[in-house]
Design goal:
Helix content is 43%, strand content 14%. It is elongated and about 105 Å long. By secondary structure, it is α/β, with parallel strands linked by helices. It is a single-pass type IV membrane protein.
């Protein structure tokens, strides 16, 4: 996949404006022909310089303007289409210099922002580049005819730059002697590709707040050991990731000396502090090396507006119908490293403050600490804090139900930089479900179970019981938070799998279910065994949505510690299950504190076509005699191995009988 860097603009459009006779057209023709033209037309035709001959390797269009041949409307349209405007003046003509502030700069501002212009220009606005919204178009001031004088106008121009932040740079040149011609167009390119104004405030002589915020995030991501310092190892990694080259020890020492000299607390214990890091980038910009800071920002996903690029946050991911998304091994290892970095006290859990610090490189946390992650994943039951296991569970849940959000937050946390790859390396797309069904087993490691039943049936308690070691603690507890997913790991055939329980309410027996509420890896239909009217709900749901589907189904009767009531339905639950070839109802109670139900559900999801075989095994009393139908979850998966073996044996016997019959004929 390769490392991903936010892309810069794919082309540059430069517009030259200025008073008549200042030499705009001559500058363009001298650049193209590399010699001064003796005859100069009123206006040069638009030219495009190929990418391979420009310093920044970007195709560049150069556009001339002539008041003689073009109207003011045409000028407005060209200003809006241009990425940068070069205002040309003649260094030997003070009037052309004065007109920069009295005419040209106000004109460019007004045409870029029609609300500032008395007449506006709807057509130009429609044709213009979208960057021209209440924005200051980058401007380069160009003093031509430097060959005619023996002094400089730079002092006057620098004074203008202080009043107009959109002026990126200024240069004196000569179309006649070709002096600084290439540099002039390079500065114009640079003003578009590596603009100063998003990074630096000329008036205050410091970084913009957006630039500071971006660099602070970058500093935190590069601070691998979390000590708020960048040591030599971390600085070298930073250098390699941004510029694909190591930082030489001598250069590193020189950098530290410069920081120490200018910012006393910029170096601490021979490592760079955040203040030192920010100063270094401020120094780059002040010395005209914007491209260095922009290279860093783009490597970390920022666009020209210092916002995270959508392409960086959301790389295209193809998910075939019937496939699902899981964390890959690399994704899990990265998230483990992030957890351990912010688990400052090393207690194996994230406190609310540690959790907040962990997501300080993100716009916000992807979930609520108090009402989401602590209610949907395993936690440290003493402190109520999220354990490493619970942390990975919550990411596993998000990756299955909202993989786009996972890729976004992996980018915010620095996966692209640390792993030198796109976030897609952290995602595993499973094979299609139809292939799992054909092969009679699932290759997935994450299964989605929909727990469906009437309100008050005890399904929420059953879901929450999946997260705790001692279910007795949940007895009598009122579940107020609206958390619909619970996730934990279970063992299926000796392998760790994640099971996601989604709590789905059915308020009335005839209420329809949406397709996204029906489709899952295994369905768990829950009724209250102590309520005579509860089973009707799940019976109707099964007949309407699951009787003809290939989704494995288990019916669960909760509150089995209470008096079991006869159900007001055509059939009792056991009869219903026998008729529809389902496993007998599983009786569940928080008071029993038995968790074999979750293992059964995960096993049924892993082997979706073995339901008939499970029933066959259940009916044979000798299985109970040998302990295979006990409530011990460890033995439940052993029974599964027997089912698989028996099924394969059945195929072999069937083939043998068929072959024998064919031979006898």
């Amino acid at each position: 996949m390769g490392q991903y860097t936010a892309t810069q603009r794919k082309n540059v459009r430069i517009l030259l404006v200025g008073d008549a006779g200042v030499g705009k057209t001559s500058l363009i023709l001298s650049l193209v022909s590399e010699e001064y033209p003796e005859e100069v037309p009123p206006r040069a035709e638009e030219i495009t310089i190929p990418a391979n001959v420009t310093p920044e390797q970007v195709p560049t269009s150069i556009v001339d303007f002539s008041a003689v041949e073009q109207t003011e409307e045409a000028l407005a349209a060209e200003i809006n289409k241009a990425h940068v405007v070069c205002i040309v003046y003649a260094v030997d003509d003070d009037d052309s210099l004065d007109r920069i502030t009295s005419h040209w700069l106000p004109l460019v501002r007004a045409k870029c922002n029609p609300s500032l212009d008395g007449e506006g220009d709807a057509e130009a606005e429609a044709e213009g580049d979208t960057q021209c919204e209440s924005v200051r178009k980058p401007i380069v001031l160009v003093g031509n005819k430097i060959d005619l004088i023996d002094y400089s106008t730079m002092d006057s121009v620098l004074a203008i730059m202080e009043d107009y932040p959109e002026i990126e740079s200024c240069v004196e040149c000569s179309a006649k002697t070709l002096h600084n011609i290439s540099e002039m167009f390079y500065y114009a390119q640079k003003a578009v590709l590596h603009p100063t104004s998003p990074l630096y405030m000329m008036e205050e002589q410091e970084l913009t707040s957006a630039c500071k915020k971006s660099l602070v995030r970058i500093f935190k991501i590069c601070d691998i050991d979390g000590d708020n310092l960048l040591n030599d190892y971390e600085l070298n990694l930073f250098q390699r990731r941004c510029f694909n080259t190591p930082l030489q020890p001598q250069i590193l020492d020189e950098v530290k000396v410069v920081i120490q000299k200018n910012v006393p607390d910029g170096i601490y214990n021979d490592a760079v502090t955040l203040k030192g890091f920010l100063f270094l980038h401020c120094l780059f910009i002040q010395r005209g090396r914007n491209e260095t800071t922009w290279a860093v920002l783009r490597r970390f996903g920022y666009n020209d507006q210092l916002e995270m690029c959508q392409e960086y946050l959301r790389p295209p991911l193809k998910i075939p119908p019937g496939s699902s998304t899981e964390l890959s091994h690399r994704g899990q290892q990265f998230l483990i490293a992030v957890f351990e970095r912010y688990d400052r006290d090393g207690d194996g859990a994230l406190s609310p403050e540690e959790h907040k610090m962990l997501f300080s490189t993100c716009p916000a946390a992807p979930w609520s600490y108090s009402t989401d992650i602590r209610k949907s994943c395993p936690i440290n039951e003493t402190t109520g804090w999220v354990t490493l296991h619970g942390w990975l569970c919550r990411w596993t849940l998000m990756t299955l139900i909202d993989v786009v959000k996972t890729t976004e937050y992996l980018a915010y946390l620095g996966f692209n930089v640390h792993e030198n790859d796109s976030q897609l390396a952290a995602i595993h797309v499973t094979r299609e479900r139809r292939i799992d069904l054909a092969k009679r087993q699932s290759s997935r490691s994450v299964y989605k179970c929909h727990v469906i039943g009437p309100k008050g049936s005890g399904k929420t308690g059953m879901c929450r019981g999946f997260l705790v070691e001692d279910m007795h603690k949940l007895i009598g507890k009122e579940f107020k938070t609206n958390v619909v997913h619970c996730i934990n790991s279970v063992q299926v055939y000796g392998q760790e799998k994640h099971l996601i329980l989604r709590d789905i309410d059915v308020r009335h027996a005839l209420d329809p279910l949406q397709p996204q509420e029906v489709n899952c890896d295994v369905a768990c239909l829950v009724f209250d065994s102590s309520n005579p009217r509860s089973f009707e709900y799940v019976a109707r749901i099964y007949i309407k949505y699951y009787a003809e589907s290939k989704i494995p189904v288990m019916i669960v009767g909760t509150k089995c510690d209470m008096d079991e009531r006869r159900q007001d339905y055509l059939m009792q639950p056991a009869e219903f299950c026998e008729k529809y070839k389902l496993l007998p109802p599983h009786l569940f109670s928080l008071k029993t504190n038995k968790k074999e139900l979750y293992t059964k559900l995960a096993t049924m999801a892993a082997f979706p076509r073995f339901q008939a075989a499970w029933i066959l095994f259940y009916k044979h009393s000798h299985l109970r005699q040998f302990g295979l139908m006990t409530e011990d979850p460890k033995l439940w998966w052993k029974a599964g191995l027997g089912v698989a073996a028996a099924t394969m044996l059945g195929f072999i016997v069937l083939k043998t009988i068929s072959a024998a019959g064919a031979h006898s004929r």
